[in-house]
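Input sequence (126 aa), recorded before submission:
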Amino acid sequence: QVQLGESGGGLVRAGGSLRLSCAASGRTSSSYIMGWFRQAPGKERECVASMNLGRRGGDTYYPNSVKGRFTISRDSAKNTVFLQMDSLKPEDTAVYYCALGLTSVPSAHAERYGYWGQGTQVTVSS
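Predicted structure, C-alpha cell format:
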C-alpha cells in the first residue's frame, strides 16, 4: 500500500514561487509515474505535471498553462517528488494534489493514477 503526503502550500503574491513536496511511503517503482494535479472551486481537476520515476531523468509532461513556470523533480533516495512553481499567477490558486500511477508513461489523465494525497492549498494573491 502506498501513502502520499503533500506539503509546502501557502499564500504567495503573484510573481512569487512555491515548492511543493510529496512524500511517498510504501512500495514505489521506477516503472511508475507521479503527477501533480490541481483543482480550483467550480473547476475540474487539472494535471499540471507528470513524470516517470525512472532513474535516467524520466519523461515529463506539462500542459501549456504551466510550461516554463512549473518543474517536477524527484529525490529517489527520499521517495519524494517536488513541484517547483515560479512566476505564480492568481489563476494558479487551487488545491494541489500529488498522485501515483502504476504505469510508466506520464499522463494528464486522473484515471491513470490510483493513489492520491490529501492535497495542499496554494493561494496566489494579485
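Checked by second reader. The chain has a mean pLDDT of 93.
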